[in-house]
Write a structure and sequence with these properties.
Chains B, D: It is found in: Cell membrane. Chains B, D: This is ABC transporter permease. Chains B, D: Belongs to the binding-protein-dependent transport system permease family. Chains B, D: Pfam families: BPD_transp_1. Chains B, D: Keywords: Cell membrane, Membrane, Transmembrane, Transmembrane helix, Transport. The complex is a heteropentamer, with 2 copies of chain A (255 residues), 2 copies of chain B (245 residues) and 1 copy of chain C (315 residues). With 255 residues, chain A is of the alpha/beta class. Chain A folds into 2 domains: 132 residues, P-loop containing nucleotide triphosphate hydrolases (Rossmann fold, 3-Layer(aba) Sandwich), CATH 3.40.50.300; 68 residues, no CATH class. In chain A, 35% of the residues lie in helices and 25% in strands. In chain A, strands 5-6-7-3-8-9 form a 6-stranded mixed beta sheet, sandwiched between helices. Chain A has a 3-stranded antiparallel beta sheet with strand order 2-1-4, covered by helices on one side. Chain A is globular. In chain A, 53% of the residues are buried. With 245 residues, chain B is mostly helical. With 315 residues, chain C is of the alpha/beta class. In chain C, the strands form 2 sheets. Chain C has a 5-stranded mixed beta sheet with strand order 2-1-3-10-4, sandwiched between helices. In chain C, β6, α7 and β7 form a beta-alpha-beta unit. The radius of gyration of chain C is 20 Å and the shape is globular. Classes of the chains: A alpha/beta (255), B mainly alpha (245), C alpha/beta (315). Chains in contact: A-B, A-E, B-C, B-D, C-D, D-E. The interface between B and D is large, with 70 and 71 residues. The structure holds adenosine-5'-triphosphate (2 copies) and magnesium ion (2 copies). One magnesium ion binds next to α1 of chain E.
């Protein structure tokens, strides 16, 4: 296979009350090992659905998806859900430790890694809380720590920072970039924030239309660490935006 | 708040005392609570009381445990696997309404006149309640949470069960178990109608002699034992579900 | 004159046959008495029904009545229907030891010697008539060693079932169960008839509430008359009687032949004479107090009213 | 998938037929299914069968309805209001373990030997099951959802109940009701042991005369009626919970 | 009272395992009738908690909150929760209609208003779906429609647009501005996006520290409709950001 993930001719249809809605249509995409690939697109276009297919939570109606086998102890893929989806009966630390229980680790090792992961998102203090005792942003950060903890080959992230304030968000963006550079992880990152996409990604694909198709693909060749106000990023952002707006206009959608 | 439970009980006892005293019900059938201590003392000093409790507690505990465990196990299996649910659905419908009394001959055939037969009857008495509670609780676990387990690689049945289904279904399961804790006492009486000594048999005996006061003494004994267990259970439930608070 | 309706509570056993026969022969109707039956499983439930005023006539065992009277329920026994109902049957395992010429006590002893454990005999709970008569037979009549036999108390149905499957070595049953179990398993043997267990042991009686007696004493007389005639009919024409009983009791559950056999079996002893059981009832109570099944004897005075029976037999 | 339920039933019947035929159980207690049609025909032609069903269905329906409605109502009240729960908690513990049979005298005293007494016994038989299910379901409704109702001004008890508690508790409530639908058939037998005509009485009569085939015919009759009701119920449940699918 | 909402000396403490955490401390705030007040602040500072207190979902431990009575048929306040919190058993249209059931409306009128509100957020097509058949952004928009439908005097919005892509988001921002100008509604708007705050708000308060206090208050005097790239907005943004970063640094928090 070419990349760490190969998607060929992927399409997906939901059925509801006997009526079919095609969400993804004949998608081709190769995710290269080690790259940071951002996916942007309007609400409801099928971004989350795509990630769900990759990790096996949804079955494609057509096409194939190939994922390279895991290269280390950890899993090949880990997903940060769009909603935090913490297990309400587990304390924060045990929520973060969930994925680790699949690996062959001692209890102490598990605890250590969960705590380290929690510290990365700045929540080590809240380790013993239950999810309902957290704020919205804190929950999202715990979900992020849960996926980071298992150290997968590919991190699938579904708008992981959308509930965070600018400062926390920028800190985590930088943290994510650092982790990636240190470990060479592949990241598939869904976001609705174009600045975020250009700041983080090597490549950005624009998903739009109904059913969702890839309508734009932009590379950002700038070295990390990047400067947020760099002109290249600004330019890439405008291009992505153009692709999005163009699609929307041509589609004649309400918004 | 702390005084409400005893207050409620007091009101209840007052009404109970009044009903036979005002002649609304013949005291032969509903002895007022005030005559019960004397009846209790008679039973207690004769040793019957302790022996009956001791025997029944044995049947109760074993029957409740057996029925509950089986009910949970099967409820989980049919709650998790749709084909299993379908395969059993009609059989369940045939066996479900068979009353405890109708199982008595089988209990005698399979276990003889032995405490294990009583255990069997009690187990059946609670089985269905727990089964349906477990089945319902497992099959209505939020799919979003199951997906979390899936996404982290817990895809086999047992893994999924332990990581998500069981903890998520716990509130519903506990409702079933709590109901069973009560139902099992009801079943004790039915289970002891064939030669197995205990509370139920003693009650039947008293009832056939119209010794209602003794019947009520044993009823309250059951209530006491049940109350104790239920209190412990509710405390346990509170601990298990502290994440809900 | 519109017929008076008697609400009759019965336990569906063979001993209630005289009432069914009298009714189905039309004798009650001829006396201006309509009937409505309510079937019960046990005597105590019927006492509660008496107390709630839903039945007028009680056709079941005499034992609960004595107690009921002490609780303020005014009721009078006006006739008997059968006596010496209970019989002792044993399962094949134990029947082997009841060879001809071997006394029961000896048979029990041999059984224990052979198996190492006492023979288990099923009967109803302490305080019931079957229990008392069984104990009387074991300890007083046959002088069985207490180590050789164990009494296991259970419900009537459970007793029959336990005997049939051999979960116990024997027990007390009454007709038509005696006929049915011996038909099902010929190895099951009757080892003692009711008269041997406890002579004249009281069985099913006809009792009426004081209110009904006061308002309709003529109808009570009609019932007793009917019972007397029915007992006679069972003696003279059991086949004809069996048809009625089968209709009332079995309603298709048991065939007429079995009922016919049960009616004339040695375990059935029909009699309408209440006098025959007065002394036996008292004696039974004395025995129950002796074995600790009863705290004290319930007074029997005023429970029996023999005048109806005397009038019925005089005419 | 569609064939699994009848397949399961077939396997069950085959085993049942084999057990007495192979002499594992005396046919006197477990008549093989093949002898049942004859017994059924006898009961049917005599008219007993229809009469028994008709009577029992009446008690069943009324008893189930009464017990379920009361159970839901009280379960909701104690599930919603903590002081009510506390006030009743000890009284519940006293009354909960009182077996159906022990209520028989009261049924007779209060209702006489009348169908209403049977209805009463059946209602009690299902009441506690539904009560605990309702109580548990209501008191474990997600607080986040209750807050939504609150935020939109539905703050009174009844409003909150209708907008959030009831719909959110529906899965749990339905588990209780489904259990009750089965339990009520079990209770029918207990309810008819005193002079109220119906299935239960007929079964008991047959049982006391050791006519096991007829007992089984009525058992299967109950199974059939229950199966019908349960099927309707499951379909209804599917509709009510379509938002879960 | 001075404003449409008067907060005096408000503080709130959570108790957990016998241990107390003070979240809000001695807060004073007057919300003026008709203004658009944005609240920004780091994750976990107490922004959601503040809105919850206002609408009566949380009880303050100290201080007072006064809300002017409703001026029309609708309620005085309506809240868009941070998580969508749709009622899973109600179809989209009935979720939007929830608040309307409190008002004295005919069924038809309710339906009409719910549908109109749904159209505002661009989801009229999905009226008969159940919540679990929606994407994350779609759910959030339904929640928004639900609050808009009841036409409250004051709209409390807890990061209502954080799950939306840039285009949808901007469209909704403009829609919200339009509604406000047409109806004169007061809006209390929690966001973690400083650009959003400056673009929409008349005043911006910065909540920070632990326990949360008001550490900055900025006015944006620009007329609506505004131009997103206007220098005044840029300046206000920098000021807010400064307040946020300053607080974070002085606080020595992990991020
Ligand atoms: N039940 C609770 N028990 C203890 N602490 C709680 C509880 N609920 C919330 N908190 C804490 O209160 C603080 C404020 O929470 P709040 O939800 O108001 O934050 P927020 O400002 O809205 O954050 P975000 O931007 O992440 O949504 C958080 O630090 C949170 O951990
Ligand atoms: N179970 C379902 N039945 C029918 N349609 C569904 C179902 N689940 C999702 N959809 C539809 O599929 C489309 C894609 O959903 P998806 O969650 O992938 O969107 P998204 O791109 O992640 O959007 P957002 O940015 O709002 O999260 C949406 O239009 C949604 O309404
Ligand atoms: Mg999404
Ligand atoms: Mg918040």
């Amino acid at each position: 296979m070419e990349g760490v993930i190969d998607i060929r001719g992927l399409s997906l249809t939901f059925e509801r009350d006997g009526q079919k809605t095609r969400v993804l249509d004949n998608l081709d995409l190769t995710v290269r090992r080690g790259e940071f690939l951002a996916i942007v697109g309007p609400s409801g276009v099928g971004k989350s659905t795509l990630l769900r297919v990759l990790i096996g939570l949804a079955k494609p109606s057509g096409g194939t998806v190939a994922v390279a086998p895991a290269s280390s102890d950890g899993p090949a893929l880990a997903l940060v859900f769009q909603d935090a989806r913490l297990l309400p009966w587990r304390r924060v630390i045990d929520n973060v430790g969930l994925g680790l229980e699949k690996l062959r680790l001692t209890r102490a090792e598990r605890h250590r890694r969960a705590l380290a992961s929690l510290a990365l998102v700045g929540l080590a203090d809240l380790a013993t809380r239950f999810p309902h005792q957290l704020s919205g942003g804190q929950r999202q950060r715990v979900a992020l720590a849960r996926a980071l903890a298992v150290e997968p080959d590919v991190l699938l992230m579904d708008e992981p920072f959308s509930a965070l304030d600018a400062i926390t968000r920028e800190a985590l963006q930088d943290e994510l970039t650092r982790i990636r550079q240190a470990t060479g992880k592949t990241v598939l990152f869904v976001t609705h924030d174009i600045d975020e996409a250009t700041y983080l990604a090597d490549r950005i694909i624009v998903l739009s239309g109904s059913p969702g198709r890839i309508t734009g693909l932009h590379s950002v060749e700038l070295q990390h660490p990047r400067h947020r106000a760099h002109a290249d990023l600004r330019a890439a952002g405008l291009a992505v935006r153009g692709a999005l707006e163009g699609e929307l206009v041509s589609d004649g959608a309400a918004i | 708040m702390r005084l409400l439970p005893p207050l409620g009980l007091l009101i209840f006892l007052a009404v109970w005392e009044a009903v036979p005293r005002l002649g609304l019900v013949n005291p032969a059938f509903l002895p007022p609570p005030s005559v019960l201590p004397a009846a209790f003392l008679r039973e207690f000093t004769s040793g019957e009381w302790l022996a009956a409790i001791w025997n029944s507690l044995g049947h109760y505990t074993l029957g409740l445990a057996t029925g509950t465990l089986l009910g949970i196990a099967l409820g989980i299996v049919t709650g998790m696997y749709r084909p299993m649910e379908r395969l059993t659905s009609w059989v369940v419908r045939v066996l479900r309404p068979v009353p405890g009394l109708a199982w008595v001959p089988f209990a005698i055939i399979w276990f003889g006149v032995a405490p294990s037969a009583a255990v069997f009857i009690i187990a059946i008495g609670v089985f269905w309640i727990v089964y349906f509670a477990a089945h319902g609780a497992i099959s209505s676990v939020d799919r979003d949470l199951i997906e979390v387990a899936d996404a982290f690689g817990f895809r086999s049945g047992p893994e999924r069960l332990i990581k998500v289904l069981l903890p998520a279904a716990t509130p519903g399961l506990l409702v079933g178990v709590r109901t069973a804790i009560g139902q099992a006492w009801m079943a004790v009486v039915a289970a002891e109608i064939f030669g197995v000594a205990g509370l139920g048999q003693r009650m039947m005996q008293a009832s056939s002699l119209l010794a209602t006061d003794i019947v009520v003494v044993y009823m309250l004994t059951m209530a006491g034992l049940y109350g104790l267990l239920d209190t412990v259970f509710v405390a346990l439930q509170g601990r298990l579900l502290q994440w809900k608070a | 004159q519109a017929p008076v309706t008697a609400r009759i509570g019965v336990i569906p056993i063979l001993a209630a046959a005289p009432v069914f026969i009298a009714d189905r022969e039309g004798w009650l109707k001829d006396s201006g008495l309509a009937t409505r039956y309510t079937t019960f499983e046990s005597g105590p439930n019927m006492i509660q029904a008496l107390a709630s005023g839903t039945i007028d006539v009680y056709v079941a065992g005499v034992a609960p009545l004595a107690v009921a009277r002490t609780r303020g329920i005014d009721i009078k026994v006006v006739a008997s229907t059968a006596v010496e109902e209970m019989t002792v049957v044993v399962t094949p395992k134990l029947a082997r030891f009841f060879e001809p010429g071997v006394a029961p006590a000896e048979a029990f002893k041999r059984y224990r010697a052979a198996t190492g454990s006492p023979a288990r005999l099923a009967t109803q709970p302490a305080g019931s008539v079957p229990n008392a008569t069984l104990q009387h037979w074991l300890w007083e009549v046959t002088k069985t060693d207490r180590a050789d036999a164990a009494i296991i108390a259970m419900g009537i149905d459970a007793t029959q079932q336990a005997i049939l499957v051999g979960a116990v070595e024997g027990g007390t049953v009454r007709e038509p169960a005696v006929t049915i179990v011996t038909q099902r398993d010929p190895g099951i043997k009757v080892v003692a008839l009711g008269g041997v267990m406890f002579p004249d042991q009281p069985g099913t009686v006809i009792a009426v509430t004081a209110a009904f007696l006061r308002d309709h004493s003529d109808k009570v007389q009609a019932i007793v008359n009917g019972a007397v005639r029915a007992v006679r009919l069972i003696g003279t024409d059991p086949a004809r009687a069996a048809v009625h009983v089968e209709q009332a009791l079995g309603k298709g559950i048991v065939d007429g032949a079995t009922i016919g056999k049960a009616l004339v079996s040695p375990s059935s002893k029909f009699t309408a004479d209440p006098r025959r059981i007065i002394e036996a009832t008292a004696a039974l109570q004395r025995y129950q107090v002796k074995i600790g099944a009863l705290d004290r004897e319930a007074p029997l005075d005023g429970l029996f009213d023999t005048s109806f029976f005397l009038r019925a037999t005089a005419s």
